[in-house]
Amino acid sequence: MSYDLLVIGGGIHGAGIARDAAGRGLSVLLVEKDGLARHTSSASSKLVHGGLRYLEYLKLRLVRESLTERETLLAIAPHLVRRQRFVLPYRGRLRPAWAVRVGLFLYDHLGRNPTLEGSEAFSFAESPYGEPLQDRLRRGFAYSDCTVDDARLTILNAKDAAERGARIRIGHRFRHAVREGSGWRAEVEDVASGRLYGERARAIVNAAGPWSGELLRGAIVAAAPQPVRLVKGSHIVVPRLYEGEQAYALQHTDRRLVFVIPYEEDFTLVGTTDVPWTGEPGAAAIDDAEVDYLCGIVNRAFDRQVVPRDVVWRFAGVRALQDDGATRASAVTREYALPLDGGPGAAPLISVIGGKLTTYRRLAEEVLEKLAPWLGPLRDPWTAQVPLPGGDILGGDPLVLAGALERLWPFLTPAESRRIARAYGTRASRWLEGATTRADLGEDLGGGMSEREADWLIREEWARTADDIHWLHSKTGLHATSAHRRRLEAWLARRLSAGAAA
Question: What is the SS3 string spanning 25-59?
Fold first, then answer.
C-alpha cells in the first residue's frame, strides 16, 4: 500500500505528527519497533512548562513558544495536564535575587493569554511552603507551571491519529528506505515474526528520537547526516516527602534545577540528571551515582532525608538533542531542528532533532508546513482547537468528572475515581459502562488495575505486556506487588491463548 506519510517512531513527536497529518486528510503509517512512549517519551520529568532555566541562556523564543503551548495543552488535554505551583528556595550564592525576580517576571509575561497564577516572593517562616524545608532556607519564590502524564499524552495522540485514519503499527521496525521515482520504497520488519514487507510513501518523517541519527547514517539511503547529541536524564520516585500539593525546584551548586514533584498521590518524583550518553539508547538506566546525586539534593533542602533504599521506582531516558557545542550536557539547547532532505523531483525526508514534550504539537505543525510543497495543499492547522480523546470535559476540571464517576459507579473509591478521570477523561465511561459492582470489573490485577480496564488498554490503546499495563498506560505498578505482577502476566497469557484459539 502507498501512503502520503511514513512516520518512524512512536514517541510524542511521531504520535503528534501522525495525529496532525491524519486530521488534515493525509494517509499515514506510523511504525514503532517497541511500544508507544516506550523510551524517552515516558522518561521525562512529567512537565508541561516554559523552561524557567532556559531564560539564563536567553532562549526567549523557546520559552515564549513553550508557555503558549502550555496554555494550549491545558485546553485540549485537561485530564492529563494539571496546574502545578512550584516553590523555588532562594540560594544567593547561586543566583542573585534580582536575577530570579527578573526571570520570573519574564516567565509570567512571555506567553500568550496566561491563565496560571503569577509568581510571588515570600518568607518561609510565614508560609506553609517552608514547613518541609530545612531552617537555613529562609526565603523563596513561587511560580506556576503544569505537570502531565507523558506516556498517556503520547498514547492519546496516537489514538486520535488512528481514529482519523492513521495506521499505527506497534512492534514493527523500520529497516531501510530508498528513493524510487517521486516517493520512497521502505522495508519494515514485523518484530514478532521476523517477516519483512515493503511499503511506499510520498514522504518520510524520521521521529526516532535517540535512534534518529543512526537511521540517517545508513538505514535511509542518501540522507544527509545530522549532528545529534545524546543526553541521559534519570529520575527517582520515593514515598511522599511532605504534605501539600506544591512542587519544589531546587537549585544545585552545578547551577541545575532539580524538581521535586508530588506524584500519583502517595509518592514524590525527583529529577532530572543530565549525563552524556554514548551507548545503545534502549539500554539506558539510572546508575548509582545518579541516585546518590538526586538523594543528596533532596537531603540538602528537606527535613526528611532519603537514601537509595527508599527509592520505589527509578527510570532513565535518552534525549536526542541538537549538538550545539555546549560544554555541559545541561546547557545543550532544547530547541528543535527539522532538517529537510529533498528537492525538486526528490521525495522528502524530514528529521526531528531535539525538542521538548511541551512543544510537540507546534513541532508537528511545522513538520507539515515544511512538507506541504510535496504533499499538496493541506487543510488548515487544527490540533490547537480539538481536544485529545477524553479531553472534552465540561468546565475542564477532571476532579468534577471524578465526582461524577463516584456517583455513577459508587463502588469506586475517591482515589480510584481521580486516577480514572485523569487517565481517560470522558472516555472512562466507555469501559466502565454496564458495571454495577466491583465484581463486574473482573479480577484485580494489581494497584487497582482490573481485568476490564486491562482489556480496554489492549483493545483500544495497543498495550501488549505487563509493563505496558502497569507502567506506561497507567502507573498502577507503583501500588502493585510482585504477586500482582505474576497475576497480570498469567492473565495476559490466558488472554493470548484464548485469542489464538478463537
Answer: CCCEEEEECCCCCCCHHHCCCCEECCCHHHHHHCC
